[in-house]
Design a protein that fits this description.
The chain is mainly α and about 210 residues long. The protein is built from eleven helices and three strands; from the N terminus they run H-E-H-H-E-E-H-H-H-H-H-H-H-H. A three-stranded mixed sheet has the order 1-2-3. A hairpin with a 6-residue loop joins strand 2 and strand 3. Helix 7 crosses helix 9.
Length: about 210
């Protein structure tokens, strides 16, 4: 079995076979009702795993301990985000800013974005956020209860996003479907279709402004 692993195209020769995990991380996480409990099972194994498919696109290292995850996220001298390219799935060489940027470029983008997330800017959104919350609650106020996730929790952040971007709430169902297609599917083809649909909508939206 170890010999077969070392011969696998996704497993570099420098990775010890005992750290190799022949699995798709997202498929594994979706195999049970609670993905957090499912992923939590990895704590019983090695602190670091080389996974055949860590992001549905390619193999890579997967830290399974909080301390290692924090080290990866904060040590920019040894770990880089700049090689990531989620939009490469649909053939575009676009970076998700600032997530897929490294210092010092990341800091430049963050300085541009920081004013929009200052306490004063966030406080100014209070009225609009409360109004969106009240509107959703009004939809089931006269009922004995609600299905919280589908009737409120899933819609609420998308309502806020659409309002902030000046996009019509009538497209909420589309955005929710695209979000599921990007983040909650098993096949890369579904993810590509969702990302392509979002790109086409944004191109249409910009042309209409």
């Amino acid at each position: 079995e170890q010999g077969a692993l070392q011969a696998a195209h996704w497993l570099p020769s420098h990775v010890p076979p005992e750290l190799a995990w022949d699995a798709d991380y997202y498929t594994f996480a979706a195999e049970q009702d609670d993905p957090f409990r499912r992923v939590g099972e990895l704590h019983g194994g090695p602190e670091m795993l080389w996974v055949r498919s860590v992001d549905r696109l390619q193999p890579g290292w997967l830290p399974t301990r909080q301390a290692l995850i924090r080290e990866v996220l904060t040590d920019t001298d040894h770990f880089a985000s700049g090689h990531s390219n989620m939009m490469g799935a649909i053939g575009l060489d676009w970076k998700l800013i600032p997530l897929e940027c490294d210092p010092p470029q990341q800091q430049l983008y963050r300085k541009v974005l920081e004013p929009f997330f200052s306490p004063a800017s966030i406080n100014a959104l209070d009225g609009a956020v409360r109004a969106a919350c009240d509107e959703l609650i009004d939809g089931f106020l006269d009922k004995d209860g609600c299905e919280f996730c589908s009737e409120f929790a899933e819609k609420f952040p998308s309502h806020i996003f659409l309002d902030l971007m000046g996009m019509p709430r009538e497209r909420l169902a589309d955005f929710l479907a695209w979000e599921r297609g990007m983040l909650r599917v098993d096949q890369i083809e579904q993810q590509v279709a969702a990302m392509t649909a979002i790109l086409h909508y944004l191109e249409e939206f910009v042309r209409e402004q």
